[in-house]
Fold these 2 entries.
Entry 1:
Amino acid sequence: MSQADTPEAPKPRGTSRRTVVAAGLGAVAVATGVGAYLALSPSRGPEPAYADSSLSELLEKGPLPENTLGSETAPVTIIEYSSMTCPHCANFHKEVLPGLKEKYIDTGKVRYIIREFPLDNLAAAAFMLARCSGPEKYFPVIEAFYAKQQVWAFGKEGTPVDRLFDMAKQTGFTRANFDKCLSDQKLLDGIVAIRERGSKSFGVNSTPTFFVNGKLLKGGRNLKAFEDLMEPYLKG
């Protein structure tokens, strides 16, 4: 098994913009009307041997507001490109991020930024719901979705949209604002733009992909992997 999840081959663009975030959502087309023009796979050229990026370029303003934890003046900035249906991403959020937060983010040493890089349409829909929850609830919704990923993303009962709505209800959504959120074409366009920028500008082609002050880290399966990269910036 690879260290990080990679996208499938690009899907054809023949579907109407107004049908759905469709590949895994099926009936959401009728329920929500979310656009399905997504080609949720970056080009699959050879992976560069060296893929660090300039931190200043990474921090340039994107199409949607950033969702961040920690101090803006922290000596270390960690950027995660994540997909809500990626099991390795869920593992990071359940097993690694809590320790990173307690030891480094909450103590002012690290600023953490998460960026949406949906590997499929169901992940795009989940990110839309987190965004629709508002800045204060974004991270609690993200963590709730990752905690129960196996249920709503890979469960066997009901349709994907039914499972997604059942999960959304637990974070405060009604059916009305669930449908309204997933019909927000502008929001969907913004999330797609974040993903495309990550792919085209920074070579992101799998999740989770991290940049630690611009240094590339794929997978990030344990706290030590981050500490090894952060050490030069935290001395003294």
Note: The chain has ten helices and five strands.
Entry 2:
Amino acid sequence: MFRFENPEYFYFLLIIPISVALFVVGRIIREKMLARFGEKSLLSRLMPDYSNVRPILKLILWNIAMIILTIAMANPQIGTKLVKAKQKGIDMMICLDVSNSMLAEDVKPNRLENAKLAIRKLVEQLQGDRIGIIVFAGKAYIQLPITSDYAAAEMFINNINTRLIPTQGTALAQAISMAKASLQSETRSKAIILITDGEDHEGDVLTEAEKAAAEGIRIYTIGIGTPEGSPIPIVNEKGEITGYKKDAQGNTIITRLDEITLQKVASTGQGIYIRAQNTNQALRKIFEEINKLEKTEFDTQLFSEYESWYPYFLWIAFVLLVLEMLIPARKSHWAKRINLFGQ
């Protein structure tokens, strides 16, 4: 297994565009200043040692060295020893609504982003539990099969958006059915967490909830939004709001939380319903309820030892930095004879 021990160091890569921008600005300013003293052909004869290529080459070497040095600080590691371990936990599938109504801003910054933040915080608390993610709108899809790889879960959560499913609607029944099929394991305690505004649901959702309850799967529902509702923003590819959805008569569409359906689903699924004024707090309450369920011991495979590769990257970065320092910014007399860089 490959991983970076300290991925937060990749923020240092922001140095690269900054250095390039400063270099370009510096070159432009220098050219303007030289232009005041005369024509280029004359200045090139007056400054025979000046090189156009060498500063660019030095910048390229320096930037490559910075990239490799950043990788070294992030410490790339490869798992070298796979061991079997016993863990206790619960299997849970999170079903997240990604229909356009989840862009409504009655919960800040909007319903979907608020829910994603809460799910990320939930993943941070997991210890031994397995988690999967299903996204749904007019159709449901498995975004993440059930796993104990929490790093992968966070990555998939970050990539969730309303463009994942072009078909609009709220396929609660299909999402529950798909989650039930994903929880076919020997683990005794299983749970489905449904996060949605519940509006315009499709299919016989209560029948699917009954089927899940018959298999010992509890369903917990979180209603995100407000009964008063909010307009549905129209968002462009840059994430900017360009307007609000309207009906055929030109009236602004208001999306409202459907609590009655979600309460019935939770009751049928032997779980609880919570309205999320704060999605993080709601998810924490439900997780506390789930933690009361019996945790089952199961076998899993984990990497217990990792080999760090950062020394190799440090050496490469060191060599590149030394090479960058050895290359003079101006032509030297011996370099003129060799003519290695041409200019």
Note: The chain is about 40% helix and 25% strand.
